[in-house]
């Protein structure tokens, strides 16, 4: 097969499957996708007959072109421990498996690991990643530089902790001011870089490790810079008990962040499994976004999100791998964990079958809904004219139960294979703004 185009403009012939902003789906068994010189999608439609076909086209059939996955929640320094420590409670797992790794994530470690991580995300089909770094300014800077060089779309933040910190060097009286200053320096340097491909997220870890002042001041800085603000909430019973103890005046966990002025459309709350009805209503009211991380929630026995009820309430949700709370980098694997979780909730009578998401709904959650959670639904998340060409090519034959079976024709069946039988090698190419990303192996791997 001819080598893939490394940059725009180009035209591809393939199957096309994409959610559309109007709620429908683009599903072309034989499609044409054209990318202009600026890396925007010019056209995504049925293969034209006769003279309308472009003179030069890369034929990717039987590959499927889809929008790239959006991972709303992950931790770059934790990746080496993915798959380790299942079943521990959150706070013990953090102490034993995570804080030592994050403490060691200095500039040289980040310079080595971050490029590998971004290649691995691209190989898994993720073209937008929202990540926590470690406490350190210099390794966060190195992670941004790696994302800039790789080409992936990224939102990254330096972790902030002024209570229960793994920084053993700093004077307690200097933590807050230093963390705010370093975060603001990083935001000034990186937020909006490369015409908005890179963004900054102020990143107080969670209420257990942050004072009310740190939460409030970080939210103020995020608003001032127009940056994101991300944290964790209501993941695990031990964590929730600790927050209730530390913030006795708060009416519930969400109220700790609400009081800090941190809830809004640029806020990404990870997990949010055990919210009360009041908290659900307040998340919806403030337009805060939730990163649903079901693979992590199963791995750490944290709980099962009542996703159907949250969606019915109007919550804006996307999916997160939560490496290394989650064992796998693939958002397709996260979809499978989420689908299994919802089945268990049905079996235990907590959810009703009519609430259940269908495979195409999971694909939409991992793409366009994730983009919407970041306010990027007009930019990425679907293959529509005018959007930036953030997309992937999947060889669906990798998901077939028997070698070289023809992939299903019906979109719902194809999506079902991708969600329930994702294969680590099925993503063959990934582009951001029409630029080919390093990581995926290229088409033609199965025959
Ligand atoms: Zn996390």
Would you write up a description of this structure?
This protein has helices at 90-103, 107-123, 137-150, 175-190, 193-196, 212-225, 237-246, 253-259, 277-286, 294-299, 307-313, 331-347, 359-366, 368-373, 411-420, and strands at 10-19, 25-35, 41-46, 58-67, 69-75, 126-132, 153-157, 159-160, 198-204, 228-233, 267-271, 289-292, 316-319, 391-394, 427-432, 435-436. Helix content is 36%, strand content 21%. It is α/β, with parallel strands linked by helices. The mean pLDDT is 95. Strand 15 and strand 16 form a beta hairpin. It is globular, with a radius of gyration of 21 Å. The structure holds zinc ion. Zinc ion is lined by residues 73, 75, 232, 270, 322, 325.
Bound molecules: zinc ion
The profile of the biggest β sheet is: 9 strands, parallel
Residue runs with pLDDT of under 50 for 5 or more positions:
none
Classification by helices and strands:
alpha/beta
Helix content: 25-40%
Note the gap between the termini. 11 Å
Bulk shape = globular
- Which percent range describes the beta-strand content? 15-25%
Gyration radius, to the nearest Å? Answer: 21 Å
Question: In CATH's first tier, which class of the largest domain applies?
Answer: Alpha Beta
User: Architecture of the largest domain, according to CATH?
Assistant: Alpha-Beta Barrel
Assigned CATH superfamily of the largest domain: Metal-dependent hydrolases
Total number of domains: 2
Number of helices: 15
Number of strands: 16
CATH topology of the largest domain: TIM Barrel
Overall pLDDT confidence:
95
């Amino acid at each position: 097969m001819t080598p893939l185009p490394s940059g725009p403009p180009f035209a591809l012939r393939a199957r096309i499957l994409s959610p559309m902003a109007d709620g429908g789906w683009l599903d072309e068994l034989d499609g044409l996708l054209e990318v202009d010189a600026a890396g925007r999608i010019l056209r995504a439609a049925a293969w034209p007959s006769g003279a309308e076909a472009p003179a030069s086209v890369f034929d990717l059939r039987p590959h499927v072109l889809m929008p790239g996955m959006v991972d709303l929640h992950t931790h770059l320094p934790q990746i080496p421990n993915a798959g380790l420590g299942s079943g521990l409670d959150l706070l013990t797992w953090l102490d034993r498996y995570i804080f030592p790794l994050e403490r060691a994530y200095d500039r040289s470690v980040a310079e080595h690991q971050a490029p590998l991580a971004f290649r691995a995300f691209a190989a898994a089909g993720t073209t937008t990643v929202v990540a926590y770094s470690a406490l350190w300014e210099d390794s966060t800077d190195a992670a941004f530089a790696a994302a800039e060089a790789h080409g992936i779309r990224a939102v990254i933040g330096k972790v902030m902790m002024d209570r229960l910190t793994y920084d053993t060097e700093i004077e307690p009286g200097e933590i807050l001011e230093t963390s705010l200053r370093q975060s603001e320096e990083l935001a000034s340097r990186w937020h909006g870089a490369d015409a908005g491909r890179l963004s900054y997220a102020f990143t107080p870890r969670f209420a257990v490790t942050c004072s009310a002042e740190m939460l409030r001041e970080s939210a103020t800085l995020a608003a001032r810079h127009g940056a994101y603000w991300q944290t964790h909430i209501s993941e695990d019973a031990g964590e929730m008990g600790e927050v209730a103890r530390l913030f006795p005046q708060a009416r519930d966990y969400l109220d700790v962040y609400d009081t800090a002025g941190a809830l809004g459309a640029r806020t990404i709350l990870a997990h949010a499994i055990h919210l009360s009805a009041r908290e659900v209503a307040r998340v919806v009211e403030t337009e805060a976004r939730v990163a649903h991380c079901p693979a992590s929630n199963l791995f750490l026995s944290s709980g099962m999100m009542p996703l159907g009820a949250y969606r019915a309430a109007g919550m804006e949700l996307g999916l997160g791998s939560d490496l290394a709370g989650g064992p796998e980098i693939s958002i397709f694997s996260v979809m499978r964990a989420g689908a299994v979780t919802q089945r268990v909730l049905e079996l235990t009578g907590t959810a009703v079958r009519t609430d259940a998401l269908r495979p195409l709904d999971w694909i939409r959650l991992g793409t366009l809904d994730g983009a919407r959670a970041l306010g990027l639904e007009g930019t990425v998340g679907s293959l529509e004219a005018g959007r930036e060409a953030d997309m992937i090519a999947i060889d669906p034959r990798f998901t077939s139960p028997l070698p070289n079976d023809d992939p299903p024709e019906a979109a719902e069946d194809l999506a079902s294979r991708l969600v329930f039988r994702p294969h680590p090698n099925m993503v063959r190419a990934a582009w951001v703004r029409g630029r080919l990303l390093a990581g995926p192996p290229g088409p033609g791997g199965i025959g």
